[in-house]
Automatic annotation (TrEMBL):
Protein name as it appears in the record: DNA-binding transcriptional regulator OxyR
Entry keyword set: Activator, DNA-binding, Transcription, Transcription regulation
UniProt KW ATP-binding keyword: no
InterPro entries assigned: LysR_HTH_N, LysR_subst-bd, WH-like_DNA-bd_sf, WH_DNA-bd_sf
GO cellular component: protein-DNA complex
Family of this protein: Belongs to the LysR transcriptional regulatory family.
Sequence ranges assigned to domain HTH lysR-type in this UniProt record: 1-58
Transmembrane intervals: none
Entry's Gene Ontology molecular function annotations: DNA binding; DNA-binding transcription factor activity
UniProt-listed Pfam families: HTH_1 (PF00126), LysR_substrate (PF03466)
Record organism: Micavibrio aeruginosavorus
Length: 289
């Protein structure tokens, strides 16, 4: 008994006719009848009660057909999934991004997908680096936008762009008129930073450890937007990535001279993922935007 046999049986049950079922299944009636008879012989049970004029389900047939129908539906789902995986621009894909990137890139990503791949369904997740890496490794998400490198050998990395840092100060600050700031001016400044789990905090601290600036321990935030409002009111300074810069937010963003203060933003996926070649195409689509 195979899936085609089940389709024959369900068709007869739906149409109450061997000839009608044969026509619907695009086979001859003798072939369909012979296959159903083989199934009945294999099972040792009659599925249909036949007369010259009528075809009805037997007691066993009433139990068999609903189960066969479910099996057919599941096989169709498998076929649909296979088709979706064969066509990377069809089906579903899940993308995660760190919280210091998601608000600024997700809208553009959605716009790109709806324009270039309208048949692709997408789900988005915003989280911290550690949770996104766990999601990638477990298969809960397909791709993640992170700060590179991840130092995880089972993941493929694709660099999207460099995201330079700026010193963010309130517009009324004496520093706001400066075209740029150098290392001497930065030395011993206190920075408002994000909470422990954010990679942006670790990047800022690495600069601090280089002898520039210190952490302002009086306040820690869970989002860049909170820090933005604190800085705008003149209650501190921070390093803000270019991606998060906004116009008319009460902040002046000052370029930092003499040192390469930036982060590399990239797309990451499992090397073993069967859709990995598509992810490279997708990464190129994002980087062009």
């Amino acid at each position: 008994m195979n899936i085609r046999d089940m389709e024959y049986i369900v068709a007869v049950a739906d149409l109450n006719s061997f000839s009608g079922a044969a026509s619907a299944c695009h086979v001859s009636q003798p072939s369909l009848s012979a296959q159903i008879k083989k199934v009945e012989e294999e099972l040792g049970m009659k599925i249909f009660e036949r007369t010259k004029r009528t075809v009805t389900l037997s007691a066993f047939g009433h139990a068999f057909v609903p189960r066969a129908r479910k099996i057919i539906e599941e096989v169709e789902k498998i076929r649909s999934d296979a088709k979706a995986h064969a066509n990377p621009f069809f089906g579903h894909i899940s993308i995660g991004a760190i919280a210091t990137v998601a608000p600024y890139l997700f809208p553009a990503i959605l716009q790109t997908i709806r324009s270039d791949a309208p048949d692709l369904n997408i789900s988005l997740r915003e989280s911290v680096t550690g949770d996104l890496l766990k999601g990638l490794l477990s298969g809960d998400i397909d791709m993640a936008i992170l700060s590179l490198p991840t130092d995880t050998h089972v993941l493929e990395e694709f660099s999207l762009f460099e995201d330079p840092f700026y010193l963010a100060v309130a517009k009324g600050s004496p520093l706001a008129e400066m075209p740029f700031v150098g290392e001497e001016l930065l030395r011993n400044m206190k920075l408002i930073l994000l909470e422990e789990e954010h990679c942006l905090r670790q990047q800022a601290l690495s600069i601090c450890k280089g002898g520039l600036m210190q952490e302002d321990r009086s306040f820690r935030a869970t989002s860049l937007e909170t820090i933005r409002h604190i800085v705008a009111t003149g209650q501190g300074v921070t390093l803000m990535p270019q991606l998060a810069r906004q116009e008319n937010d009460g902040i002046t963003y000052i370029p930092i001279q003499s040192r390469n203060f930036s982060r590399t933003i990239g797309l990451v996926w499992r090397k073993t993922d069967e859709r990995a070649p598509f992810y490279k195409i997708f990464a190129s689509m994002i980087s062009k935007k």
